[in-house]
Amino acid sequence: MATPSDTLDKVGAGLDALDVPVEAHRPPIWRRFLKTGVPPIIAFALLLGVWQALWASAILPEFQLPAPVNVWNELVRSISTGEAFEVLWTSLHRAVFGFVAAVLIATPLGLLVAKVRVVRAAIGSLLTGLQSLPSVAWVPAAILWFGVTPSTIYFVVLMGSVPSIANGLVAGIDQIPPLLPRVGRALGAGRLASARHILLPAALPGYLAGLKQGWAFSWRSLMAAEIIATSPQLGVGLGQYLHNGSSLNDINMVIAAIFLILLVGIGIELLLFRPLERAVLRARGLTGAL
Amino acid sequence: MTATLETTVLSTVDTAVELAGVRKVFGHGSSAVVALDGVDLKVRPGEFVCLLGASGCGKSTLLNIVAGLDGATSGELQLNTSRPAVMFQEPALMPWLTAARNVELALRFAGVGRLARKRRALELLELVRLGDVADKRPHELSGGMRQRVALARALASTTVSADGAPALLLMDEPFAALDAITRDVLQSELLRVWETTNTAIIFVTHDVREAVRLGQRVVLLSSRPGRVVREWDVTSSSDTVLDEINTHLREVISGHAV
């Protein structure tokens, strides 16, 4: 005869068996490609078609609206001469270097603003305000301070991305359920251990959103700085390339430069931030938006 | 499983927790609310005490004071135990960590080495019969399973001390948010764990049946301000005790009708 506790054990085992999560079945790769890869390709093809049609109708003169094939030829030319890689490399390494520096500055800054009341009262709204100030507004001042040097460019990039990253971290920390740090205290976590093992990981989704925005801001700040602050000693980045195209009245070069700028933006998003964000959200079971 | 858990050494001290005249006031001046008014309570090592009361009796406040998450306004608290572990109504697991890592977190804060942490976490998960899902994350587990992981984590945080002080587990209505069958299973699970680990437990609930089933002793608190009204020894629980406690609880509550 079964004792009551045996019966309960069985009920418990039954509950567990019913509760064991069912592994989600992933569709085959070609179907996923069909779902996520094909729509943007179609959209791009449509855009090209409209462009071609507009050009063929000759409403706008050739120096304003180039033929798609001419822009393509310019791209092929700059790639085959190696100019495109040089230009991309100059800009990308500036952007990455500036972004990493921004992360190193903004992370402790965000932690301070989020956790120290006086600091938040003092510079919290300034930090939010700086986010709405276009960082290109810093270019004239930076040129007066640093001259047309790499320092000017890095300064503008930092002013663009630091507020976004810091604000993202603050928002991430503000949204942590208060029970989690409490549990941490009950488990005996000190201030530092709590920051490292509870606050930072709990704030990660918001932090990541801030990083993503910070990257976008540092990339566009960089382009603005490069277009305005041109000088032979700075080397040719994407912004200067675009600027040169405009000076030469070469619309093919201008459009090609815009394509390259977009390409980097989309490439970094798809190769770096999208997978990171997915991994973070999936680990927390927040797959609703994916 | 009984052999793998290092149960705490029987201490010569015969009280694990002692509260004397504990008073807690929230706010100041005319808007001040007295949550606890002179609460005296003794818990022996390894004893299972249920704190029973209606809303507003300061059960949770009392637990927070014992846990060290909140300070008493006046009165004395003496703990002869290792760091008290706390379990809340919600499991409050870290959503980015697996079940095993959640349990390990408590040990990490106590400075336990990596390997020892891993081994101990798995032991504790086995104790609550969740060894198979150690690598699952909270969102992949059911409510009852999550609460068992929380129990394993709480046990991890209270049994780490090396000085052999008795362990103490504080539970704040941990099963209130679960469905009836799961609650039933978890109650028996908790009793089994308690018998295996010899941990003193202070269990807060508003459910008389639960209190009588789980506890050795039931302590009834009055509401606003919270005071100890009466205590019952319920080791040999019978329906008469249940009815008696119910009657007293009703009296306490109806005393507040305007």
Automatic annotation (TrEMBL), chain A:
Transmembrane segments: 41-60, 95-114, 126-147, 254-273
Compartment(s): Cell membrane
Membrane topology: Multi-pass membrane protein
One Pfam family named in its UniProt record: BPD_transp_1
Keyword line: Cell membrane, Membrane, Transmembrane, Transmembrane helix, Transport
GO cellular component, one term: plasma membrane
ABC transmembrane type-1 domain span: 88-272
Claim: Cell membrane is one of the keywords in the record: yes
CDD domains on file: TM_PBP2 (cd06261)
Single GO biological process annotation from the record: transmembrane transport
Record-linked SUPFAM superfamilies: MetI-like
Keyword Transmembrane appears in the UniProt entry: yes
Assigned protein family: Belongs to the binding-protein-dependent transport system permease family.
Protein name (Swiss-Prot/TrEMBL): Sulfate ABC transporter permease
UniProt source species: Lentzea aerocolonigenes
Automatic annotation (TrEMBL), chain B:
Tree of life domain: Bacteria
Keywords: ATP-binding, Nucleotide-binding, Transport
Domain ABC transporter: start-end pairs: 17-248
GO molecular function annotations of the record: ATP binding; ATP hydrolysis activity
Family matches, as Pfam families: ABC_tran
InterPro entries: AAA+_ATPase, ABC_transporter-like_ATP-bd, ABC_transporter-like_CS, ABC_transporter_ATP-bind, P-loop_NTPase
Name of the protein in its database record: Sulfate ABC transporter ATP-binding protein
Upper classification of the organism: Bacteria, Bacillati, Actinomycetota, Actinomycetes, Pseudonocardiales
